[in-house]
Amino acid sequence: MMKNDLQKIYNRFAKTYDKNRGLFDMTEVINDFYRRLSVHSGHLLDLGCGAGEPFPAFFIQNGWQVTGVDFSAKMLELARHYQPKMKTILADIREIELPHEQFEAITSIYCLFHIEHEKHEEIFRKIYRWLKPGGLALFTYATNEYTGADIFNGYKDFMNEQLFYSHTTPEKLTAILESAGFKIESFQYRNIGGETFLWVTMARP
Ligand SMILES: C[S@@+](CC[C@H](N)C(=O)[O-])C[C@H]1O[C@@H](n2cnc3c(N)ncnc32)[C@H](O)[C@@H]1O
């Protein structure tokens, strides 16, 4: 896939995506993550923040400072509309660099599976560096339950668009996270809105 294809698709269907976003009930996943945090104020980084839902909205309501990163200018326009308090950065997660030990929490919801799994290790190492010691991260990961293959690099239909998805096995993912220094806190398959993904919570000790 050309580097910018996914970016173009998200720019094109930002409004449709936004209209359908409420179909996914994220209450349980948000509550579970929030309960696990050792602090209840600070700075959240949301990678692939889209329209600023659902994590940025929840954290802003709870008094957190929130920074969202996305490479779709149209999604960020929606984010600035819905979450004017959120700081937005237009950038590719694969390329962005941020100061170390800045964030109490980092989330990447329904996003990393759009990035080649060969790049994930480098991204997890960055997430580790950006988290403060004691900080917590949560991300959604695709597996066989979604793509039908143990290791996948290909396209699947989502809202009538062919989107690129990528993942390796949960075993290889665990090895990558542990070698980056993370302690895995929760490794849970969840069916939300009819789609099953693996939700991983991990701590920087
Ligand atoms: C399925 S949406 C999820 C948005 C939001 N996290 C949510 O849960 O509603 C995926 C988002 O990730 C962004 N994205 C995908 N790959 C990216 C990359 N390499 N760098 C930055 N953003 C990316 C897309 O532009 C899109 O806004």
At a glance:
This protein is an alpha/beta fold and 205 residues long.
Verbal overview:
- With 205 residues, the protein is α/β, with parallel strands linked by helices.
- It has one domain (5-203): Vaccinia Virus protein VP39 (Rossmann fold).
- The protein is 33% helix and 32% strand.
- The chain has helices at 5-12, 14-20, 27-36, 55-61, 73-82, 120-130, 144-147, 170-180, and strands spanning 43-47, 65-70, 87-90, 103-108, 131-141, 152-158, 161-167, 183-192, 195-203.
- The mean pLDDT is 94.
- The protein binds S-adenosylmethionine.
- S-adenosylmethionine binds next to helix 1 and strand 2.
SSE map:
Blueprint: H1 5-12, H2 14-20, H3 27-36, E1 43-47, H4 55-61, E2 65-70, H5 73-82, E3 87-90, E4 103-108, H6 120-130, E5 131-141, H7 144-147, E6 152-158, E7 161-167, H8 170-180, E8 183-192, E9 195-203
Parallel strand pairs: 1-2, 1-4, 2-3, 4-5
Antiparallel strand pairs: 5-9, 6-7, 8-9
Bound molecules: S-adenosylmethionine.
S-adenosylmethionine binds at residues 6, 10, 21, 48-50, 53, 69-72, 75, 92-94, 109-111, 114-115.
